[in-house]
Amino acid sequence: MKKLTLVLLLCFSCGALGDGLPELGDVSQTVINPIQERQIGQQSMMQIRASRQFLDDAEISDYLNQLGYKLVQFSNEPSLDFEFFALNDYTVNAFALPGGFIGVNAGLLLTTQSESELASVLSHEIAHVTQHHLARMVAAQQGDSLASMAAIAIAILAARNNGQASQAAIASVQARAVQKQLDFTRVHEQEADRIGFEILQKADFNTHAMPEFLERLQRATRLLEGNAPNYLRTHPITSDRIADIENRVSKQPYRLLPDSLDFQLVRTKLISAQKTTSDAIAYFEDALSTHKHGNPIAQQYGLVGALLRSNDIVRAKDELTTLRHQAKNTPAAQNNAMLETLTGQVKRAAKDADTLSFYRTAVQNYPQHRALIYDYVDLLLQSNQADTAVNLLIEQITRHPSDTTLYNLQARSYNQLNKPLEQHQAQAYSYAWQGNLMGAIGQLELAKQAGGSFYQLSTIESDLRELREMLDARVKK
Fold it and tell me: In this structure, are residues 260 and 268 in contact, taking their beta carbons and an 8 Å threshold?
């Protein structure tokens, strides 16, 4: 467990001030270094993961990270750690937090009409991070206390919803300094456009998608009689910015690029989630019968998922057969992990005899697809194969050290193996990554009472010390 502890304590190693944000050092310091940026982002993410708005869907998250890292490799800091995540918010917005954390609202995912449009938004947010705009804002304050840095992070986090929420955050925490620094961020928008455009171009996406997306949002603004989409409020557009983007794009050839199937499937999941089960079934049936609403494989995927939600297992199996036949005859749909995950879920619901062997093979074929891992581990535990589950989870947690679902599954696995120390320790990590410090401390106290080796108990004591220091700092704010 040492490696896991070190990863967790990296986030906890700083104290806290303000709204649970990390200590930034001497107030005379005028530049935020990358480690401090990451710590601020980690603290903000704890709050986000604990909120109802966090979209805890591994497939959507993994897709965003795959697309995001395809862009990051062409940035000026390709080795920087990033985490892309989605919010269950159907307003149109995206935002960057300090340290490489980039959030995308479900509404923006549905508003983008091509993968290149989505990539253009992500490349812009990546540029904000790699250009260290947040650190530069603090440095520009010169005489202001670095404590205002905490207020900036809070205001940016609030801005993920709407302009009014951002203004409320500004009013409540160091209004003058925060407003001054948020105003300064508008100066960085043009630089983020330029760097983002270069990233988009190098990653081989359609660069014309960048102005097309912004122009569509502007048209929506006019139709809404001044009620601008949130993305335009948090990323203010000026005539100079539009002219600069269009000038850059005009020098590039227009390229029609096919969207990935995963882009279509993620959008289908979000469309379905907006609807009742019966409405979702009717929507996808209509789309398939009239040949509208996009990709037929994605539509069939949506129908199978909706039928599964309605517990119509017989028809779900029939429609799945059609889906797999379509995928078999479509090169872009062959060997798709999201289709494989849906297949496994239908098999589980139907209680097919070969379900466990299906998952064993699927996980071997797609070892990094977390949705498959979740379902496979749950099935292993139902089959009293906790040893196999634990081994698999340790490997996955090394890859995804902040995944609370993996820790919850690990706690269940250790409970089945009658290992209370390891069970409570895993549950503590889950609570800690969600910012539930009291819950994490309580679980570690239970782990300590269970007894263990000198090394295990020393690790627990170290974790407890760090968590209590962080909790004390939060209480004193």
Answer: no
- pLDDT on residue 55: 95
CA atoms within 13 A on the CB side of 11: 23
Mean pLDDT lowest for which of 8-22, 68-82, 341-355?
8-22
Other C-beta atoms closer than 10 Å to the C-beta of 246 total 14
* Rg of the chain in Å (alpha carbons): 24
Those residues whose C-beta lies under 8 Å from the C-beta of residue 376, and which sit 6 or more positions away, are 344, 359, 360, 362, 363, 392
What ranges do the domains of the chain cover?
31-250, 261-475
Nearest-CA neighbor of 248 among 190, 186, 185?
Answer: 190
Q: Positive or negative, the Cα torsion across 318, 322, 328, 331?
A: negative
Contacts of 407 (CB under 8 A, 6+ apart): 397, 426, 427, 429, 430, 433
**Which residue stretches of 54-174 are H helix?**
58-72, 106-111, 115-130, 133-141, 148-158, 163-172
Name which residue leads in pLDDT, 147 or 92. Answer: 92
Residue 32: DSSP 8-state: -
8 Å CB contact between 97 and 77 = no
Asked if 467 and 444 touch (Cβ cutoff 8 Å), the reply is yes
Structure tokens at 312: 């119509």
Q: What pLDDT was estimated at residue 245?
A: 87
**Hunting for tokens 């994605």 — which residue is that?**
298
Side by side, the strands of the sheet bearing 83-87 are 83-87, 101-105, 94-97
CA 182 – CA 230 distance, rounded (Å): 15
What tokens appear for 94 in the block? 């995206």
Superfamily, domain 261-475: Tetratricopeptide repeat domain (1.25.40.10)
In 3-state terms, the chain is what percent helix, strand and coil (to 5)?
70, 5, 25
Among 322-326, 421-425, 465-469, whose mean pLDDT is lowest?
465-469
- Which residues share a beta bridge with 86? 104
Average pLDDT, integer, range 230-236: 68
Q: How far apart are CA 470 and CA 459, in angstroms?
A: 17
- The pTM (predicted TM-score) of the whole model is 0.86
Mean pLDDT score of the chain: 83
